[in-house]
Specification:
The structure holds four protein chains of four kinds. Helices cover about 80% and strands about 0% of the residues of chain A. In chain A, helix 3 packs across helix 5, helix 3 packs across helix 6 and helix 3 packs parallel to helix 7. By secondary structure, chain A is mainly α. The radius of gyration of chain B is 17 Å and the shape is globular. Chain D is mainly alpha-helical. Chain D has one domain. Helix content of chain D is about 75%, strand content about 0%. In chain D, helix 3 packs antiparallel against helix 6. The chains are: A mainly alpha, B alpha/beta, C mainly alpha, D mainly alpha.
Chain lengths: ~240, ~210, ~55, ~250
Amino acid sequence: MNFTWFHRLGSPPYVYALAERLTPWFAWSAALLILAGLYGGLVLAPPDYQQGDGFRIIYVHAPSAWMSLMVYTSMALAAAVGLIWRIKVAHAAAAACAPVGASFTVAALVTGSLWGQPMWGTYWQWDPRLTSELVLLFLYLGYMGLRAGIEDTQRADRASAVLAVVGIINVPVIHYSVTWWNSLHQAPTVMRLAKSAMPPSMLVPLLMMLLGFTLFFGAVLLVRLRAEILTRERTSQWIREALGA
Amino acid sequence: MSTGSLEVENLHLWRGERHVLRGVGFALAAGECLKVTGVNGAGKTSLLRTLAGLMYPEEGEVRWCGRNVRSDLRGFQGGLAYLGHEPPLKADLTARENLHYWIRNRRQLSEPLLTQALIRVGAEPFAERLVRTLSAGQRRRVALAGLALCLVPLWLLDEPATNLDAEGQRLVGSLIAEQLARGGLAVAAVHHELPLAGGAVRLLELAP
Amino acid sequence: MMEFLDMGGYAAFVWPAYAITFAVIAANIIWARRLLRQAQASARRRLAARGEQP
Amino acid sequence: MSAGSAPSVLGLPASLETPAAAVSAWAAARLALQRDLTLAFRKPAQLLQPLAFFALVTMLFPLAISPELSQLRLVAPGAIWAAALLASLLALEFLFRDDAQDGTLEQYALSGQSLTTLLFAKTTAHWLLTGLPLACMAPIAALSLGAPAPALGAITAAVVLGSVTLSLVGSIGAGLTLNIKRSSALLSLLTLPLSLPVLIFGARATQVAIAGGPVLAPLELLAALAVLGVTLAPLAAAAAVRISLE
C-alpha cells in the first residue's frame, strides 16, 4: 500500500498550498449549486399539497440540519485522526469545523421553529429532531468553550479532540433516547415529507442544496484551515514562501 | 551492574508561542547524575516532565536502554521516580499512610522497610502526624523517603532540596549518591549547589 | 411577482428562514476570510520579529 | 555516608530490584479506592454537601408549585432527576481537583499502572461517596413528592444505575477541565448534554414506577448506558487527564 498521500496530508505546507488551490473550485461550484437549488426550490417546485408554499423552508432547513451533523462528524473524525497519529493539520481542521457547524446548527434551529409556527401553531415543539439539534448546539458550545478555556493550542487541540470523539459516540445515543422519549409522548412530526412521495421537481432542488451546502462547508473549511495552520506553524521557511512576500 | 541508560536527542518543546526546549540532548549511563541548571523559566521543569513522558516534545526523542520510551511508555514510567515542585502528599493522611498509598501502588513494600526509610530521612518522629500539620521541610523529607522507597533505576528530581535545612540538603546529596552506587541514574534540576558525595556528575545548563 | 413574494400566505415564515440561512452563510464567508487575513498578518509580524524578511 | 558504604546498613536495599515486585492492576486499583474512601471519611462534612443540596432542590418544588401531593406526583420524576443531576455535577468538581493540585494524579500517571484502571477506581470511590448516598436519599425525596411506597424500589434502582453513568460521564468532563480556572460553568456545559439520556430514561423509569406500570424497559436502558459508560468512559477520562497533565 502506498501511504504517501496520507503523509503529505500531514504536512502543513502541502496542505496549505492545496487548500489555497482548491478553495475557488469549492466556492464556485457551491455558489452555482445553491443558486440553481434556490431557483428550483422557490420557483420551479410545485407547492406541497398539504403545506402549500410553507414547505419551501425545507430547502434551507434540511441543508442546515444536514450541515450541523455532517460538520460534527467531520470534526470528530479529524479530531480522532489528530489524536491517534498526532497530526497537527488534523487538529487544525477539527478546530476549523466547530464554529461553522455551530452557526448552521443555529440556522437549523431558527428555520425549524419558523417552519413549526405555521405547521404546529407554535414556534417551539419538543420534537425529537429539533431537540436533538438543540443538544447538538450545546455539544458545539461545549467544544468551543473547552478550546477557549485552554490557552496552549496543542493542549486545547488534544483536549477538545477527546471531547469531540466522546461527543460523536454520544450523538446516536442522545438521538435514540430523544426519539424514544418523544415516541412516548406522541408529539406530531410534521416536519417530514415522505421521501417516496416527493416528486423529482421537489427532490432535485433539495439534493442540489444539500450538495451545495456541503461544498460551501468545504470552501469555508479550507480557508479556516489555512488560518489555523498559520497560527500553529513554527518553522518560518515555507510560511515566507506561502505568503508570497 | 548496569541498570539502564538514558539518551536524549534534540528535544524541542513548545508551549504556545514559547520555544521552551531548543534542541536539548545528553546521554547518561548507569551510576551517573545529571545536574540541570538554568535561570527560572529556562525549562528545567519542562525538561524533567518531558523526560518522564508527561509532556510530548515536538521533535527529538528520549531513549531508555536504546529504545524510544514512547514504545513502552508505561514500562518506562514504572521504572522511574519523579519528584516535582510539591511533595505528592495528601494533607489529610499521615506521613506513613501517604507512603503506604504512594509506594504500594508501584511495588510490594514491607512495613519495616517503610519505617527504615522514614528513619533514614529523619521523618520517623513525625511519621504518624497528618501531613497538614508538617512544615514544608518535613513534607519534603517524607517525599524523599518515598523517592528512596521506589527503588527504581531512574530518578527525576525537580529542586529536590527546596525548603530543606543544611542537613537536609546533605541528605539529598547522600540519597542521590546511594542511588548512583546502586547503579541507578538521576537527573536533578537545581539552582543551589547540591552537596553530592561521590558519583559521576554531568552538567547541563539550559539557556533561557 | 407579488404572488411569488407572498409565498401562498407563508411569506412571514419562508422569507425570514431564507434570510437567516443566507445571513449565516454570509457570516461564515466574512468570518473565515477575516480569520485568514489576521493569521497571515500575525505570521508576517512573527517573521519580521525574528529579523527575517517577511 | 559516601557512596562506597553499603546503604543497606541504613535499611534501604543496596541494589535495585527488577519489576518482579510489581503490583497487580487490581491491587493498585483497590489501593486507590481505599485511599479516596479514607480521605473522604476524614472530612465527613464534605460528604454531606451534595446530599443536602439534593434534599434542598427537591424541597424547592413543593414550595414553588403546590403542597398538593397529587400535583407534585406529576413533577416528581423531573424534580428528582434534575436534582440528582445537579447534585452529582456539584460533587464532580472535587473528583480530580485535589489530586491534581498536590501531584497525586501525576504520580498515578507515572506509576507504571494503567491510568485507566486507577481513574476508574477513583470514579468508583466518587460514586460510592456521592451517587450511592444520593440513591439512598431518592426514595425519601420521592415519598415527599407523593410517590406511592411500592414505587420506591424501582426509583432507587433507577437512581443507582443512573448515577453510575453520571459519575462516569462526569469523570471525562472533570478530566478535561482539570487545569482551567473557574471551570464549573464549563464543566456543566460539557457534562449535561452528555447526561441527557440518563435523565430521559431515569425520569421515565420513575414516572412509570409512580404510575405502577412495567418499569423493566427503562431500567434496562439505564443499565445499558451504565455498561457503555463503564467500558468507554474510563478510557476517555484517562486520555483527558493525561492531556491536562501535559
